[in-house]
Design brief:
The protein is mainly alpha-helical and 1404 residues long. It contains 55 helices and 13 strands. The strands form six sheets. The protein has a three-stranded antiparallel beta sheet with strand order 9-10-13. A two-stranded antiparallel ribbon has the order 1-2. α11 packs parallel to α13 (335-371) and α40 packs parallel to α45. GO terms for molecular function: chromatin binding. Residues 368-452 form the SCD domain. It comes from Dacryopinax primogenitus (strain DJM 731). InterPro entries: ARM-like, ARM-type_fold, Cohesin_Scc3/SA, HEAT_SCC3-SA, SCD, STAG.
Amino acid sequence: MSEPPASGERRSGRQTRVVERYKNPQGLKRKRTEDSEETPEEVQDIYEDDDLLGLEEDEEDDNRDDDADEEEYHAPRSGPKAAKSQAPKRPKVPEQEDANGQVKKSKAKARSKPVDGASKAAPRPKAKKARLAGDSGGGTVVNGEGITGGIKDDNHLFNALLNSGSSLQTVSEDFLESFRESALPALAELITMVVRSCGANADITANEVADEDGIVGVCEDIMEAIKTTQAPPYPLISRLPTMKPIRKALSAFFIYLTKSAHLSSQLYKTDLIQTLLSWLTTMSSSSLRSFRHTSTYIAACVVGGLCEVYNEVEKDTSVVGRQREAERKKKKSGVAASKDSLDKRFSELKGKQKAIVEFMKEFFDGIFVHRYRDFDPEIRAECMHELGTWMMGCPSFWLDGSYLRYAGWLLSDSSTHVRLAALKALAPLYSIPSSTALSHFTTRFLQRLVQIATSDTDVPVRCAALSLLTEIDAHDLWGDEEDVGATDRAKVCLLIWDTEPRVRRAVGPFFASVWAEQVQEVVEARGRKRKEIEGEHEKIGAKQLAVLLVRLETLVDEETSQSGDEPRTAYVTRQVSSRLPGVPGAESRVVLAVDALWNHVDIIPEWESLLELLLLDHTIGDDSSSPRKRGKASRKDSDDNADAADEEQEKVDDRWRLEDREESVLLEVFGASLAKAITEAESDKKMEASDVKGDITRALIPALPKLFAKYQTDVGCIADLLVVPRLLDLDLYVEMRETNAYELLWDDVSQQFLKQSDPVVLRNAVGTIVFLLSSGISLLNINSRKVAELEDELFTSLRDAVAGRDELEVANFDEDEIQALGAVVTRLASLFATRDLTAGMEEDEGGKQSNAWDILCALAERGRLGYKDEESMIDQCLKALNFHIVWKTRKMLAAPATENDAEAEAPALLSLQEQRSVLLEKLTEFAVGTQSNPCEALRRSSFDALLTLYILFSPGEIIGKKTPGGLLPLLLDDQLQYRCAGFMQAQIEKYADEVGNTRDEEEPAGDENSSDVDMDDGEEKQKSKVNKSKTAGHEKTMSQPQLEREYILCSVVSTFIRAIRIGVLHIRHSPLLLAHFGRFSSTVDVCMKSLIDVLRDEGIRGKNGEEVAAAIAKSMEGAFDMYLDSLVSTNEHAHALAKALSTTFVIRSGHFAILKRMPSIYVVSVHRKCIDWLFTKLKASVNLPNKKRRNKVASLWKCMVPLLSTAEAREALQIKKHLDNAIKQSQLEVTDGKLWEPLRAFEKRLMNIMAKDKTIGDAAKATTRKATQAVNQPVSDPIAGDNDARTPTRPPPRPRPLRKPTPPPAPEVLDDVPMPQIEENDLSLLPAADINGMSTPLANRDEFRHVNGQKRARDEDDEETLNLDLAASEDDEEQQALNDLIENGIGGVSQPIAPVNPVKRRRR
């Protein structure tokens, strides 16, 4: 190594090292300090001062060093030649060691001075010893790790990389000068810098650099030294602030180094690159990730510099070549000499170019070819990124098929990061002028790119693939395709309806490219000689947009309609789609397409052009057979006075004539464009949303009546058109004095509401009516008159539909009458959902006519007959009756509460109660009755309405506010609750039969006598992983009918859970649902998790711990039964249920800290019930000839472990005691066989929990020692297998030692008989517990205690009952110590226990 740095003293007395510096490269020699070296006594003082040094002094000293480091750094430079004459040559001085044991060279050898920071050539063993020492000193320590991450800072090249203020170009030039004068020390300094960049502190000597055959050994020594120490993160991945510039600095340094070496010809005349290549190749094959990653990155940086040099040489070669050709054409004197110089220059450049190519190939073949398939995906991604950089930097060499194929192979990499890096590396290449290699590459890997874009699991990868496909399409490398609907381009365009919004936005440019290509084809087909019509391009663009969307919709419908086949991409359907802001009621794929294409397709924001095209009559000159077009054609033919010129002018050009479906799609695009324009104006600060909305209103006031008249017979178009009025500014009707137009708008909307029966049309019409009623006071009179006319017309149509009919309950209706009645009742229910129609419902004109309430009740009574074609009509009748009760109750609650009004409200209250009773009777009979046979859908809707009414009128009062339950309380009796629970159970079983459990359907049928867990043979047949993967695939590939059935089940389940949460249904019915947790899809589990939240709140906050504990135990037993009865193939769903139910015992904060717990007595009760149930089933299955059921029961102990995740030590103590008694009472011998592994895991978990409490830890450990001893299997045990018979017999227990007389234990309590509660004053009367020789009395109940290092406070009103099993064990004194804990009250009460009066423990 170089001379040791001079040392001085800091203010604290601590020695400090002066950083060595070089002067500017002006031919001056580097100056060094002449301080004397440290003596061993001074070194000892340094260590003593280090312990006493204060934080302020450390910071001041470090800051002083940092200030010195901020100076500009210059690479090592040997002394100038003039320095030789300053002193005579001295004899050789032997090597000496300083106080630190480092080799110090004499200053006399200035000429052979090594590069500063590099090790002097030293014997190999000594260098290895220094490396193995793992000394990380030298790096300034901050917070124990150091600002350099524990890496030594004795290498000046490495320090320059970390110094953001250093000039790396100057550093590289100074290094090359040092390399020219002294090659080996300079190379040692460079390789040491590489080693430092890998995170190692080893020093490379000149001898090691010279020995090429020993590179592998040196690297192995360094790696062995690193493996023996805890190395910090290496610089490339370190998060230390000082390490952030290392990546860019390495790249810049080696690029400058390569360029400078090229300019000085050292790149070709020396072994600089070969030596660096040898070391990097060896390090890149290391087993350490830090060496492989860093060496690969440095090699990539070197190749990057070679690429820049290659471009320069190639450019110079091209210039010289052209000059040679020019000289050859000249025939003047003196040409020969000039030509010879050019030939020499050309040959020299060609030689350099060849050498650079050889260097790049050696780096590629020696490092890249091996590391691009490295085990670490980060290194593979690094290789792909750098390869893309080389191709962009030097396309003439790297942009070739032999290198592009590596990028194509990595497109199928298993790592998301690698695939993303490959796609990002390929995208910029298509901006390079056309290349044959790219064309071949695209043809070969296009299908893989389309596959990634359509079906990759990672969204960023899909977006990157779409960007790459857009570039390919923009450069006409996709191929010749005519039909967009049947090619790969159509597959990509379909992604505008993908479920992921980012994918929809990413495919926008590609879709716009396809659309623009179609528009250009239509424009060019017309010819350029003809005069362009105004607005021609916009109309053609709108037409082609509609054509493209219709083709894509057809393709999607074909894919989704295939039975049994899952669509290749999860496209958004009309039933399930996102609602965009500003588009009320929008449920269309076209709306999503407009949002994705807004910034890419020019015609979409041009809503004026779309409106102009929609107002045209596209039936002129068309012999279409559609009813709408025939009607328009007949009206046109009847106009005898139509002028021929006008007719010619009204004709629509074939280039933008729309078909029926295209017109419907374009109308939907128009509505979405209006909403998007308003949304964009609201989000843009430079635009006024009111101005945009005003422009839209002014354009639509005259256009809406025409559109309503044009599309009045088209249900789909009317549904889309009814949404458009909600985007208007209604105040402009008054400002523009267009009240007549406003009344005409009311008439159009009302006419469609009274004429149409489609649910979508009615929903949109009602939404528009509500919007019109929300207008200002200026339009209040018109709104009141129009809505009154609408209501009168609605009730009149209902009476007319049943006019002349007696006994509607049993009357016969034909199909047309049923459809008419269903349409009227549907309109009434739709409007009733938003407006109070109770007055019209009860209006009978003084008894002259039947009121609507009686008519609907009579029609609803027909539900008992079970006619399938009347199902929808009866369902709407029940909804209208339910809305009547709700609106009437709301009106009574809104009335002011006065004494005078109380008497007036009595008749109304009585009428409400009577009507509610009538409705409840019908709903009860249809939902859970036995005297009728309603349809299944009617039964479900009646069940939902029934529980909703009971929830609405559930007893409960709010101070100062009237509630429905306070006016007319309604309770659900137990008999009806059990009938509702039976209905819920039937729905679940029906869903399981229809959809089926995926695990059961996909698992092949096996032998009846086989077991899922063959524990006797010691082999577990693990099927859970396979089942999980199948289940996950099932959830992703559910068909549309399955999704609909799942939605129906979730709606019924949510109603049932809502009733439990409110208190309408008792919490005892919750196991009915929870037993199926994890059996079906994750959507059903999300609903059930809300029920688990209800149990937690009831058990902890609601003080209903006993009922909650019983419900939890019953849920676990139900899940166990399903597994034992083979309703499910594995016990994974029971394990998931236990994990979810464990959260009911505690309430956690946002940081997962436990805030409150359920009383311990109830937690223990859950485990006691489950333990008893399992042992009961186990005893019953012992003597069965089939081992399958016995093994199943034994495997269920695994599901009990998650319930202990929140248990405390004292709770675990009680559970362990009950477990031991249950084992004893069952007379089953628990052996060390495979059968009892789940039980032993449960018992081990209990022991670990008990060990956390120091009070009972010793007793728990003693019992653990006894439990881990070899347990012998008696011959008479009916469960013992052949493998267990080989165990030796257990020796008889030794006599129990005599004990001091203790107070008599409390009487034994049976499981079914609860213990009397212990009052707080009685705690002091409990005897002290003798735990391992320590007498510990119970502390005060109101105090806090520590649990696992956290404080927890029990509620003062939590009354815990000690329901303990005090049966004494006949074993040894360790087991008796546990019994003493229970007998003396410890474990049932949560108090701190303070040890007093320690007594020496008896030993055996």
